Amino acid sequence: MLMAHPAVLNNLVEQYETLRLLHAEEGSPEVRERMAELARTLCVATGTKDVDTALVAARHRLPGARPEDDSLLTT
Question: Which Pfam families does the annotation name (predicted)?
């Protein structure tokens, strides 16, 4: 599987989390579409099927993550 660069993953996670904190799911159609686009991109970049799992997987691949601790990831 192709792996996204950590800098790309970090950027995607930051954008998604910012929109979630701002309650973008309740915003304009354009903002909701951007949030959905980020969710899809995170899923593709991490090889997962839902955004919550994608966020966990992305964080797991970021610098500083403990690679030996995969207790939050399902196989």
Answer: DUF5133 (PF17196)
SS3 string, 14-41, reads HHHHHHHHCCHHHCCHHHHHHHHHHHHH
Distance CA(5)–CA(50), nearest Å, equals 20
Q: Report the alpha-carbon distance of residue 35 to residue 29 in Å, rounded.
A: 10
Instruction: Say if residue 66's pLDDT is above 80.
Output: no
Q: Give dist(CA 29, CA 73) in Å, integer.
A: 32
Confidence of residue 74 (pLDDT cuts 50, 70, 90): low
Neighbour-count burial for 9-44, b at 16+ CB within 10 Å, e otherwise: bbebbebbeebeeeebeeeeeeeeebbeebbebbbe
